[in-house]
Amino acid sequence: MKILLFVKNLILDAVFPHKCVCGKFGYSLCDSCVQKIKINKVELCPVCKKISKNSKTCNSCRNNSGLTGVMILASHEGVIKDAIWNLKYNFIRDLALPLTGLLHKRFGAFLKEKRFVLTAVPISKKRLKWRGYNQADLMAKELARSCGLKYLNILSKSDDVIPQVGLSKKERIQNIGNKISLLSDINANEIANKRILIVDDVYTTGSTLEECAKVLRKAGFKEVWGIVLSRD
Asked: Alpha-carbon distance 81 to 130, whole Å?
């Protein structure tokens, strides 16, 4: 399976050479486009969007969320929206590196300070076969490496889940409900009483991150955070 994915990605790299969202060849994301991304400076509660230090879920919203907080790099518009689309649907997997670099630059100091364990929002086996990679997993591994933190592959997603794009909040919750699970070969001693950070690309309703948080809380993590490139 891994060999087939490797060959597929080599072919995709040959068919779709590096091209920035602005059309410039030789770059997955050029410096000029990076400068156009409006990085969020104000940290907000992910639920009610009120100002909250370190993007923590505020006291008023805590009972309605399993997430300790969600760090969001930017709004889902312009360059970052186009870059995420290219990463997910135009198979430009090399975009994971510069996009993760932006997460590291904005949030790296906090991640190191809190000594997070990193993981990724999973995708189904069917989706992995179609795309050839999990973009969130690529970013999680790179972010862990650049911060000197531990990465764990501990979540899986059922093949019954359909893509969330275009679904309402209610439909998203129903679609993802009970479709995320913990891998059976995880050592409980590795995760008990630790902080975990779930990496994903886009935060829309938060239903996927919340489902992941539910599973991870049950597993024994004392804090469950999310980090995403953009909020739609």
From this structure: 21
Residue 51 DSSP label: B
- Helix residue spans in 37-160 (DSSP H): 78-89, 96-114, 125-131, 135-147
CATH tag, 2-231 = 3.40.50.2020
Q: How far apart are CA 159 and CA 38, in angstroms?
A: 35
Task: Say how far residue 61 (Cα) sits from the centre of its chain.
Answer: 22
> 34: Cβ–Cβ under 8 A, 6 or more apart, which residues?
79, 98, 102
Q: What is the pLDDT of residues 176-203, one digit of tens each?
A: 667 789 987 777 677 777 899 999 999 9
- Note the pTM of the prediction, 2 decimals: 0.88
102 CA to centre of own chain = 13
Domain ranges of the chain: 2-231
Cα–Cα distance for residue pair 154/12, rounded to 1 Å: 28
Give the other-Cβ count within 10 Å of 68's Cβ. Answer: 22
The SS3 of residue 28 is: coil
